[in-house]
Design a protein that fits this description.
Number of strands: 17
Strand content: 5-15%
Shape: globular
Radius of gyration: 23 Å
């Protein structure tokens, strides 16, 4: 078959509130932008739909395509599977291809619904695969691809070497509907969704991370070699999005934007020169940058920064288990140094390791409030069953400790495993309570909308049933009582609590109406450069 017309789709499952960030901004996943741009640059007729950024899929276009590619996050993968089935019905001749983080972790599950699964970094892989398909060949020998052979047996080609030179400038204009929006649009969207959303640019300055944190997927999906993009190209990417979206909000899709100090300093210098500090930026970094006054001052001059800082845990045993290479003393000292600079912090934690209890969540909250963090991000420890057996990737959680395989809840916001020192329902409720208390007591913060609270209630009831008979009177897991080898449930009967959702929307407005910080934030939505 000749492949000329390609449609890319990134589905967003809104049947339940499953994630927090996707409800606040119109923003595509960077991997989708990169693959779409690589295909367009190679001369293919590309149309891209990302439901996270407001796209509506044109199924007539799907029916005319030679290949239909889906970029899947795990929590929206079931919707992706349904979309793939619809694409297959409407266009039986098209190749169905999955890419993104979900098929990178669970290619065999994906191959029940697609022809090919592209693992990890996708630009080079998708171009070679399209060339092979155009020649009437299959995926044999295409590194980074999984498929089924003629007997229906999954085949995982060897992983592709990561791209050495990162020089692609992603084009946001390729995503349908990802554009500047009028004030009437924002008002109508607010009425329809209950809260205001805004455009956010997404760019990337580097890929890969040399650290080997045990919980992190980046070392597998993007490698442990840190590869940098020329800061001038990063600036071009920023300007493309700012001009198209009429926004000054930018999210850096780097695992650590400041990993290479000189590279980061040059980028911040260029941003300061071009925008004069009139930029709102979010990026991730390690806690130790707080010791570097020159770098911190460059960040302050470049714009209004919110930095996602990986604290991960206040328990030394968990820090060792995560191979985080930082101590509790390092954390305390670094947070104290951050307070001397005009930056906002989003402190990031992981709960559910083998020594955590509900009190661990409470003590973490006290640390966050004490250090006046602007935002608090945390997740329940999670991984994916069978990654070890299918791909040879060491798992953080053994197969027999997963509660179910409903991928909608594999976002980090829900407990999907049996913790060692507390039932999963206790961890979920501790997380839910901590969210509420932080945003109620942290007056310097914008009160965040967390619709997942409306899913928590019924999910907690499911967990209570699942954990019965598996914990002793002290709340410790009885390993030999686990159902094993791993849970088989694929779609849970969990429904949204609409009263809780209405309450969450009401709290959003009631808290923010009385906060000066919130008014600054709300009035900046839709800001034109």
């Amino acid at each position: 078959m000749s492949v000329k017309k390609i449609t890319l789709i990134c589905p967003h499952d809104t049947s339940l509130p499953l994630q927090v960030t996707s409800y606040r901004a119109f923003m595509p996943r960077y991997g989708l932008l990169a693959v779409s741009t690589a295909l367009a640059n190679a001369g293919y007729d590309v149309r891209t739909y990302c439901e996270f950024s407001g796209s509506k899929v044109d199924w007539k276009r799907v029916g005319e395509s030679d290949a239909v590619c889906f970029s899947l996050m795990s929590f929206s993968s079931l919707k992706g599977y349904a979309y793939a089935a619809k694409a297959r019905r409407e266009n039986p001749r098209a190749a169905i291809i999955f890419g993104g983080s979900h098929p990178s972790s669970l290619p065999e599950d994906c191959l029940e619904h697609c022809d090919y699964a592209v693992r990890n970094e996708g630009e080079a892989t998708i171009l070679e695969l399209m060339e092979k398909l155009s020649q009437g060949l299959g995926a044999e020998g295409v590194d980074g691809v999984s498929f089924k052979d003629e007997n229906g047996v999954p085949v995982h080609n060897k992983s592709r070497a990561f791209i050495e030179k990162i020089d692609l400038v992603a084009d946001p204009g390729l995503v349908e509907g990802y554009t500047a929006r009028s004030l009437p649009f924002y008002l109508f969207d607010t009425l329809r969704n209950g809260i205001p959303r805004f455009n956010m640019a997404v760019v990337q300055s580097s890929r890969g991370c040399p650290f080997g944190c045990s919980f992190c997927f980046v070392k597998h999906e993007l490698g442990q070699k840190h590869r940098k993009k020329d800061p001038a190209l990063v600036m071009k990417e920023i300007e493309l999005s700012f001009n198209r979206l009429q926004t000054r909000y930018v999210f850096f899709a780097d695992n650590d934007l400041t990993l290479d100090r000189d590279h980061a300093l040059e980028l911040f210098r260029l941003m300061e020169k071009r925008f004069g500090g009139n930029v709102d930026m979010f990026f991730f970094s390690r806690i130790f940058i707080s010791k570097d006054n020159e770098l911190m001052e460059a960040i302050e001059r470049a714009g209004r920064a919110c930095i996602g800082v990986g604290v991960e845990s206040i328990d030394p045993r968990a820090l060792d288990f995560f191979d985080k290479r930082q101590s509790v003393i390092d954390i305390e000292n670094s947070l104290r140094l951050f307070s001397k600079h005009d930056v906002k912090l989003q402190l990031l934690f992981i709960f559910g390791s083998d020594n955590d209890t509900p009190e661990t969540v409470e003590r973490s909250l006290e640390l966050v409030l004490r250090n006046r963090a602007y935002n608090w991000g945390f997740c329940s420890m999670y991984d994916f069953p069978t990654r070890g057996s299918s791909l040879g990737i060491p798992q953080l959680i053994p197969d027999n400790r997963f509660i179910h395989r409903d991928w909608r809840f594999y976002s980090g916001n829900f407990v999907v495993h049996y913790p060692a020192k507390m039932p999963p329902s206790a961890l979920l409720r501790a997380m839910s309570s901590a969210y509420r208390r932080f945003y109620k007591e942290s007056k310097q913060s914008f009160y965040q909308y967390h619709p997942i609270q409306a899913t928590y209630r019924n999910y907690a009831k499911f967990l209570e049933q699942a954990e019965k008979g598996l914990y002793d009177s002290d709340g410790s897991l009885i390993e030999e009582a686990l159902p094993g080898p791993f849970a088989s449930a694929r779609r849970l009967d969990v429904k949204i609590d609409r009263a809780a959702l209405a309450g969450e929307i009401a709290r959003f407005y009631l808290h923010n109406l009385t906060r000066l910080q919130s008014w600054h934030y709300l009035l900046s939505i839709g800001k034109i450069p």
